[in-house]
Amino acid sequence: MKFSKLILKNILRNKRRSLLTISSLVVSLFLIITLATILTEFSRGTEQANPARLVTRHNVSLAFPMPAAYQQRIAAVPGVKDVMRFSWFGGYYKDLKNSFANFACDAEKLRGIITELKMSDAEWQAFISDRQGAVVGKKLVQLYGFTPGQRITLKSPIYNTDVEFIVRGVCTGGDEKTLYFHHDYLNELLPAWAKDKAGTFSILANSPADVPRVAQAIDSMFINTDAPTKTESEREFALSFQTMMGNVKQFMYGIMGAITFSLLLVMANTMAMSVRERTREVGTLKALGFQRRTIAWLFVGESLLLAMLGAAFGIGLATLVFRSLDMSLYIPNFQQFKPTAETLAAAFTLALVIGVSSVSLSAYRVSALTIADALRSTE
Amino acid sequence: MRLPIKYNVRNLTVRKGTTLATAFTIGLTVAVYLMVMALARGIDLTLASSGEPLNLIVVRNGSTAELNSAVTREQLNSLMFLDGISREGDQPLAAPEMITLIYKARKGMSQGSNITVRGIGPMSTKLHSGFKLTSGRMFQPGLAEAVVSRRIAERFQGMDVGDKFRIQATDYTVVGLFDAGGKAFESELWVDGNSLASATKRENYSSVLLRVKDQAAMEQLAKRISEDQRLQLKAVAERKFYEDQQGASSGVLKGLGAFVAFIMAVGAAFAGMNTMYAAVARRTQEIGTLRVLGFKRRSILVAFMLESVAIALTGTAIGIVLALPLNLVSTGTSDFTRFAEIAFNFRVTPDLMVSALIFGAGIGLIGSLLPSIRASRFQIVDALRSS
């Protein structure tokens, strides 16, 4: 610690170089934090899945709906607390680019099954008692200015129809870019071929322990019908959407690896230049009686301090940017876009590791020189 | 008077470590840029090559993909005998097709993706050129048999010759694997249209593919179908139909690629500036000497910038070499329009490499600008006197 002043002096000696190095660290760490946050959000569906919830879909794929009448039979399965129809409507608002999630559901059951949705009792009542009513997530209000009482029309390419809803409540929780409406209302409007069907059933089991048994009981009940089912935990269902996207994780890790390695090179290069330029000073320090270890630590300390400064500003920048800019508004299925504490801590640790490892070789080499060799250096 | 190129080259080789470290930083930036862009390019090229110049695809008005389109049998009857459709013998080259999805797990995973199942008509293989069986045999019309794209069979469980899969109450057997010349159909599974209709109890087709006689007939026919109020269908050139799907997956990737590459480039430019400032500082006396010898400020400026660009181009070359093997990598993703797997190769195309070179050189130029200006502004006396 007694050398901290010397380390600081050394950093300030070439202010421009220190500033450029720190800037390089800042932008790279900002990028790593951003990519890590994308990964966090990408995995949220599986990480935060309700362990007591299940999803039943048609065994072949989601393109096949199931008879709505399955609902009563699923409700009778032991271990099932509640079940509702939950069907993707695929509607968009005015223009195809305003696409957001919208589901037909059993209005009176929505609150009890998707427990993370929060809204006032009055709003729930207003929604349930209006067949044409819809609940919109808070972020849809931010994006399109929906207000309670407003009539909004969604066009659905799946059913080739326009459907008008009346906003009855604004909810928080889950993906807040979602609109929920009455399945019964949709059913009235659909042509005969599409009536009395459900895309999925959303099921709440009595406890997470019941989940495997419930899934098996449901699937064996319909196995010999025209519409056999596949029931899985909400986590597995979310995972199926993640795997659909392909190797997103490996891809992102690949990019983050490249950024880390390039950052290591930047730091190593800077420190190598600084160390080399001070070779003669090392000779002087040695002549004054400084030990090899102390000299090496001076350089390590300098690199660490640079890395820490870079990390601090990088973390600060990411926190500030994503506090004022909510990227989740524009990315389907992302619930929020805030770097987690783990991400920030990992970024800081990464910076420290880069700080130490980038300087070690140069520090080791220069501190090993004899006084005469160091003093004779022409750098 | 220009400084000889040899001067720059010698300066670069004398500081091998620094030069290489800086070059690698730029190389990694370029490699990441190429990786993301090659992925986007792979999807785009697959889609762009999928349509045929004289094919017209007819879907329902208002549908955004074949998956949510419907063409009734009556509509098909009024389409089949319109003017401008090519014929083979007395049969019009028209292929009604039916699309659905089947969910399959990827190899080695518990979950997977949807695969497009295409129920094809007798004319379909004539209208989709490039279709070629690579093993097994073609399905027999009317039977519950399927041919699967080789890429899909490689990537998903239970899709090889001899495997069975179920659609509703019908068990299909895979009897052959096919290639489709890198087109989007290479992500599909083909069965007989009539058998799929009875398996799914569906009356309607998803789309009708028409081969027109020539380009003029194409426009006329497209107009004729799209403007017919009774039909409520739209006819689009098949090429355009697939090209229009390009943005769905590749748009996000291009955005991500540009964002990541830009920020990495900023970081690399800072690093490049450090390297060049150090080079300038180390050679202050030398710069003074050059000025005494009569070299102009401008020559000094150009010399340092060239040096930086040379480092950057070396780095770019490293980046391209790192990214090139990606051409051999096959991958797949889904978007929410198709809602099904599309398999493709990374494509590091020549134009991407050219853009990488420009990008890399740009980093070098921007990184060297300030240090080079500094070098060119030294007063001769000060420069010579510096230690």
Topology of this protein?
The complex is a heterodimer of chains A (379) and B (387).
Chain A: H1 4-13, H2 15-47, E1 53-58, E2 66-67, H3 70-75, E3 80-88, E4 92-93, E5 101-105, H4 107-113, H5 121-129, E6 133-137, H6 138-144, E7 151-156, E8 161-171, E9 178-182, H7 183-189, E10 197-198, E11 200-205, H8 211-221, E12 229-233, H9 234-244, H10 248-277, H11 279-287, H12 292-324, H13 341-368, H14 371-376
Parallel strand pairs in A: 5-9, 6-8
Antiparallel strand pairs in A: 1-11, 1-12, 2-10, 3-5, 3-11, 4-7, 6-9, 7-8
Helix pairs in contact in A: 1-12, 2-9, 2-10, 2-12, 2-13, 10-13, 12-13
Chain B: H1 5-14, H2 16-48, E1 55-60, H3 73-80, E2 87-88, E3 91-92, E4 94-105, E5 112-120, H4 124-127, E6 132-136, E7 145-149, H5 150-155, E8 164-167, E9 170-179, E10 188-192, H6 193-200, E11 207-211, H7 215-226, E12 233-237, H8 238-243, H9 246-282, H10 284-292, H11 297-323, E13 330-334, E14 341-345, H12 350-377, H13 380-385
Parallel strand pairs in B: 5-10, 7-9
Antiparallel strand pairs in B: 1-11, 1-12, 2-3, 4-5, 4-11, 6-9, 7-10, 8-9, 13-14
Q: How are helices and strands ordered from N to C of chain B?
A: HHEHEEEEHEEHEEEHEHEHHHHEEHH
Number of helices of chain A: 14
The biggest sheet of chain B amounts to: 10 strands, mixed
Helix content of chain B: 40-55%
| Number of beta strands of chain B | 14
Radius of gyration of chain B: 29 Å
